[in-house]
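Thread: "does anyone have the structure for this chain?"

Original post by V.I.:
We have the sequence but no experimental structure in hand. Need at least a predicted one for the grant figures.
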Amino acid sequence: MRYPERLLSENEIIASEFRPHWSGIIREFLVLVVALIVIGFLAVGDVSPWFSVVIAVLAIVLVARGLVRWFTTLHVITNERVIYRAGLIAKRGKEIPLEVVNDVAFNQSMFERVFGTGDLLIESAGTHGQSRYKDIPGPEQVQTLIYEQREIRMTGMREDSTGGSESAASQLATLSRLHDEGKLTDNEFEEEKRKLLGDT
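Reply from O.Q.:
Generated one for you, tokens below.
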């Protein structure tokens, strides 16, 4: 399941696209192994086969639920935003424009470091606040990538603002939209507008 290209803006490019780390579904595999062991013991014992059927159904439901959740969760980093999408039928998602990202931090326990996974905490302006994402593969590399894409984004916005009134107007419209959507506060909007227009 890839991120639909129709949801990208005209000049938007995907820098990275990935699912949660496979360690996030270890619990499902453990449930499956335990269920198979229990069913094996019940098969050699003098127990009604219905117990085995019930255990098998419960195990399948629990495992399938976890696998579907893992398979339908997607993290995308583009040259414009950080995107989170999840869900098969009922979907949920979150998007953070790179220009409002203030800080990106990662956290790894000893176990997570061994397997190359961890949590990512993105702090952004406006209504986003702090967003925590779990089971991120290579969180340190993802942190670096977000910073790199943010720097490229901000440099491009500054260059466009000095390249002509049309580009500046386009970037100002983007800032205005983010402000209207509540992703930038009044003070943040005014500050970014001053930077864009080259005021001191």
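V.I.: this helps a lot. The chain has a mean pLDDT of 85.
O.Q.: and The CA atoms of residues 38 and 100 lie 52 Å apart.
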